Amino acid sequence: KGNGMIGNIYSMGLALQALEATGKFYAPREWDCAQAFSMVFAHDYQHPMAIAQVLPALVGRSYLDAAGLDCAVTKDASPSRQLPLSPVLGTQGIPRASILVHYSITNKLQGKHFNYSISVTVPSGSTLLQVMKVAAEEEPQTFSFQTEQTSWGTYVTSIHGLAASTDDRTYWQFLSAGNALDEGVGTYKPHDGEHIQAVFSTY
């Protein structure tokens, strides 16, 4: 992409590793290394898997380097570049301001179609998963959902009783202003007045 993104923010780690590792052997086209790294530095990575994939590229290495690693030499070495640490958000004892998030679920793909919407109030800095939990508490018959934990975080498997299926190639896609979210429900933090859509989709 023109802004330095390669795929999405979660594919950046492996993409940067691949470009660094293979750059000596071929150059299918020029790429702006600094622009790509600026995208990585601007993102607040939360998932251990994403961090594990982007960290080698940040120190100019790839997973391929592990095969020739000399532990005696690298034991005391420190990386030349470091991933910036994120400050802890919020202060204990002080309530956070509330935000209003509009949340809708839509199925126009299978069975009985539906489209439901709700507006919920959550503390500022809440994740989309927290928004979904509040919606499910307020209207459990409509906004109930199920999740499973993966190495990439929380994955939504079912909403309103409609489950995603690898056999049918279906999944729940989350959108904001018509654009797919580049983070999962466990890390994405909606802003005040944002409309989040969960749309039953196919791939």
UniProtKB/TrEMBL annotation:
Keywords: Cobalt, Cobalt transport, Ion transport, Secreted, Signal, Transport. One of its GO terms (biological process) is cobalt ion transport. One of its GO terms (cellular component) is extracellular space. Cyanocob(III)alamin binds at N8, Q53, Y155, V156, L181, Y203. It comes from the Eukaryota. Residues 125-197 form the Transcobalamin-like C-terminal domain. The keyword Secreted applies. One of its GO terms (molecular function) is cobalamin binding. The keyword Hydrolase does not apply. Signal peptide: none annotated. It is found in: Secreted. Belongs to the eukaryotic cobalamin transport proteins family. This is IF factor.
